[in-house]
Amino acid sequence: MEKETKQPDVNNPQKPNIIKNFGGLPTWVSITVIALVIVIIGGGIAYGVYQYIDDLKVEDNGLKNVEKTVEIDEFADWETYRNEKYGYEVRYPEEWTIFSALKQKEPDVVLPNSDSSVVKLTDKKEMLFCCEALQTSFKVIEEIVKFENWKEYVTIPDYRIISEREILFKEHKAYEIKSTLGIDSEGGSRLIIVPKENHTILITQGDEGEVWDKITESIKFIEPEIDISSWKTYRNKEYGFEISYPSNLVASADEDSVSIIMPDRKKCGWLTINTENVGRESVFDVNAKTACQILTKEFAGRSAKECVSDLDALYSRDIRIVDIDSINWGVWNELGFYIWRKEECNDLIPIYNQILDSFKFVNISDQAIYRDEEYGFELERPFVHVEYDEIKKEGNKISMCGQYLEVFRKNPTQTLKQAIEEQFLEDYSSDKCWFEEINKTDNSNDYEYATIAFSVSSDDSYWGENRKFCPSRSRSNGVSYFMMDPDYPEKFVFFSIGQAACTTDDGELWQDTFRFVD
User: Fold this and answer.
1) For the chain: N or C, fewer Cβ within 10 A?
2) CA–CA distance from 413 to each of 19, 406, 419, 517 (Å)?
3) 3-state SS record for 467-508
4) Do domains 79-221 and 237-364 have the same CATH topology?
5) How far apart are CA 305 and CA 317, in angstroms?
6) Are the C-beta atoms of residues 336 and 271 closer than 8 Å to each other?
């Protein structure tokens, strides 16, 4: 009997069956195989798309997708009080009340100004006029408070004192007394005594809690502003750094170290920079006993360790650069200063802090070149003692270390002789002064050299007696001459050097480094 073949219903077409048995396998096996194939193919496509997008990140002008770190200011909505006279600032919530005293005739407060000796903060203003509101306060004592005598300035019953100890608070030596608020009271207060150069700040945190702690944490001490516009700058080409210092201090270099000291007050202390090895026991040694907390921070744009020690007898600040990649510094480097804690020395602490904070890494090769765009020339700056000499420009005259040069323009078709005769000798007799070529034996650049000469008689009481009949740029008993570069025929230069040598940091005469440029 023949098997009946079912004909398709043209009026009700069926969707094609995409699941077929593979080699007679059961349908559920076929379904599983197809599912696995889809997963593998889908995964491959997804990976390909991801890889394509990732390649685009790299190929898109060489830029990579970098996560952006946004720093959040935790005090963004807080107010700031700054005391210029006593050198501190503090942040506090805008709903808190700041005051220096209470008004006597009305229930209100007296606002502090920038030189108030007493400043207080509270979150319960209404309690100031009836009860005892908890406060954070700042009180200035116009003398240096010795820690062992703190009870002469603040009254805290012995039964309330929990602990007292020396601490480092905001990089200042301080004394902390923690106490309870009372026998039956919860919470506690904190007194921090911070001696400054000629006064002491007593900081009282009236209670415990996140906001109270945050106010105390926000405190910053402000070093007095020092005008450094007239300071000198020491630059070190080999180790790639510069540092500024007052003109009454002296900087001296010795192999891999630099010292900055005030000669008439050297017994107070000095600042040193050791780029290779500090050469002595260091506070950063593994087993070193230090009187400070070593902090990791950024200094001059690099990761560093810092140790600030403020003792009764000595103030010191030491820094070690940890990130020495791409700079010619040794791992045992150290820079910092110390000042003996004497009445005649304390004023040097903010000055030396300012000196140290002026330190920065620089590309000295750029600093060493002076380039004049107006007249189209450059030269290497003279290096006098331990710093580059200041260069002054006035019109076409450039002066440095008591010497100078002048750049003159001329018709490019003129020779050097024609230009000098036209610009300097027109009004002078050629019998008394004239153009004279100079042949330099070390002329490797094919430059042309010349001078304005005059007659010299052996019986003259002064060899330059006849110079008075010639232009001021005539030859002298020192070094002076004109020079022209044939590659720049539209200008020439006059050098007035005198008898002293002024060299670059490589020991070359600065005038020999002069070159015209485009």
Assistant:
1) N
2) 94, 21, 10, 19
3) HHHCCCCCCCCCEEEEEECCCCCCEEEEEEEECCCCECCCCC
4) no
5) 11
6) yes
What's the fold here for domain 237-364? Jelly Rolls (2.60.120)
> Computed over its alpha carbons, how large is the radius of gyration of the chain?
39
pLDDT at 63: 36
Q: Are 174 and 193 in contact (CB under 8 A)?
A: yes
Average pLDDT, the chain: 82
Q: H or E element: which one contains 119?
A: strand 118-122
Residues in contact with 492: Cβ distance below 8 Å, sequence separation at least 6, in sequence order: 407, 408, 410, 416, 419, 420, 482, 483, 484
Beta-carbon contacts of residue 253 (< 8 Å; ≥ 6 apart): 234, 236, 386
- Which ranges constitute the DSSP H helices of 10-91? 27-59
Tell me the residue type at 316. S
Average pLDDT over residues 219-243: 84
Contact 380, 245 (CB under 8 A): no
How much is the average pLDDT of 131-150? Answer: 92
The span from the CA of 468 to the CA of 452, in Å, is: 12
pTM of the model: 0.51
CATH number 3.40.1000.10 given to 79-221: yes
3-state SS, 169-191, equals: ECCEEEEEEEEECCCCCCCEEEE
The tokens for 407 are 């750049």
Q: Give the rounded distance of the alpha carbon of 304 from its chain centre.
A: 13
Task: For the sheet with 377-380, list strands across it.
Answer: 369-372, 377-380, 515-516
Residue 209: other Cβ atoms inside 10 A: 13
Burial group, residue 229, by CB count within 10 angstroms (0-12, 13-18, 19+): exposed
Quick one: how far is CA 146 from the chain centroid?
Answer: 35
pLDDT digits (tens, 9 = 90+) for 32-82: 444 454 444 455 544 443 444 344 343 333 333 333 444 456 788 899 999
CB atoms within 10 A of CB 414: 17
The domain spans of the chain are 79-221, 237-364, 368-516
The CA-CA-CA angle for residues 231, 235, 240, to 5°, reads 140
* Model pLDDT, residue 466: 83
